[in-house]
Amino acid sequence: MAKKAQKRSAPKKASTKSVKAARRPVGKAKKAPAASKRASAAAGPATATHPAGLHERARHLHEEIRRSKLTHPSPWTYAPKARAWDERAQVLVEMIVVQGHTPVAIRTLETLHAEVQGDRDFQEARRLF
């Protein structure tokens, strides 16, 4: 008598995403480890000047840059410059969320803010907000 063939399950398809990437929500950032929180808390007097406002200032600058791309009279010439600022501001916001109020974040924000505010094209776009 012939033996019955065992039924086999269908082969599994290979996923294009890793398991961790599939589970993590898109807009969420990783939490900073406790050691970096302690280091940022003990960073010194530079962090005390903007205790809660650093993240808000960075987000506000990011929003202003995005709005300026829409309101500039000549968006075709202004867009590449604003896109670079927009990317830098987005990275800065994410860095502040992850690392906290570090002297590097404060210095980077001040540098980007001065560069953007000093630009004539940005001032023209901001005038039209």
Word description of this protein:
It is a single chain. This protein has helices spanning 19-23, 34-41, 45-48, 53-71, 75-99, 103-117, 120-127. It is an all-alpha fold. The chain has a domain at 51-129. The longest helix has 25 residues, at 75-99. The radius of gyration is 24 Å and the shape is elongated.
Largest beta-sheet details: none
The outline comes out as elongated
The proportion of residues in beta strands is under 5%
What string gives the helices and strands in order? HHHHHHH
Number of helices: 7
Helix content: 55-70%
DSSP, total strands = 0
Q: Name the poorly predicted regions.
A: 28-50
How far the N terminus sits from the C terminus, by CA atoms, comes to: 86 Å
Summary, kept brief:
By secondary structure, the chain is mainly alpha-helical.
What is the topology?
Elements: H1 19-23, H2 34-41, H3 45-48, H4 53-71, H5 75-99, H6 103-117, H7 120-127
Helix pairs in contact: 4-5, 4-6, 5-6
Summarize this structure as a short list of keywords or feature phrases.
single chain, 129 residues, 0% strand
